[in-house]
Amino acid sequence: RRLAVLVSGRGSNLQTILDAIAAGTLDAKIVGVFSDKPDCIALTRAPQHLRWSRAAKTYADRRTFDSELRDAVAASQPDWVVCAGYMRILGSNFVQRFADRLINIHPSLLPKYPGLHTHRRALEAGDSEHGASVHWVIPELDAGTVIAQARIPVLPGDDAQSLAARLLPAEHELLVSVLRDAVAGQLALPGPV
Ligand code: GRF
């Protein structure tokens, strides 16, 4: 199965996918890595897979950036498009183009805490547990149908850093397990977008 992966930062989720493929525990191949941050660390993890990376700020408008990204992703002919630490909102014409194969991993128990600073918000709310969600991507931010979640306890003395650090391995495990179902054709498709 052909995976296109969108990244913006550290790329630990991309690395997890690379490792699972290398270990033979994920029957897929990466057909392209795409980013809105040409100098992000994620791109150094698999330079051979880099297909498109443009600094969004060099674009006059979002639509042009989105349509170039869409065309670059489409050219890789992906079976699945995975947002793995991708930090930019995807426009509706991108989402419509890949609606039945576009997923994202988000570090919260959606529908709680869409958007940024999820660990801090969980702590401020006094939540006793936190987690990550893999969900279908729709134009509204972090609002698509949830596919699967991983839960971790919030421990006394946790701060945003310790909570994020405890969540990250759970995110990685969740993402690979969802991708295994996806490549095996076992993901129930999202409802109408
Ligand atoms: C992760 O918490 C992921 O859930 C969120 O961005 C963070 C960094 O991801 N979307 P990565 O290390 O860049 O894959």
Automatic annotation (TrEMBL):
Protein family according to the UniProt entry: Belongs to the GART family.
Signal peptide: none
Binding site for N(1)-(5-phospho-beta-D-ribosyl)glycinamide: G11, S12, N13
Binding site for (6R)-10-formyltetrahydrofolate: R62, M87, R88, I89, L90, N104
Protein known as: Phosphoribosylglycinamide formyltransferase
Reaction(s) catalysed (UniProt annotation): N(1)-(5-phospho-beta-D-ribosyl)glycinamide + (6R)-10-formyltetrahydrofolate = N(2)-formyl-N(1)-(5-phospho-beta-D-ribosyl)glycinamide + (6S)-5,6,7,8-tetrahydrofolate + H(+)
Annotated ranges, domain Formyl transferase N-terminal: 2-179
Enzyme class: transferase
Recorded name of the encoding gene: purN
Protein's pathway: Purine metabolism; IMP biosynthesis via de novo pathway; N(2)-formyl-N(1)-(5-phospho-D-ribosyl)glycinamide from N(1)-(5-phospho-D-ribosyl)glycinamide (10-formyl THF route): step 1/1
GO MF term (any one): phosphoribosylglycinamide formyltransferase activity
E.C. number(s) listed in UniProt: 2.1.2.2
Tagged with keyword Transcription regulation: no
Residues the UniProt record annotates as site (Raises pKa of active site His): D142
NCBIfam families from the UniProt entry: PurN
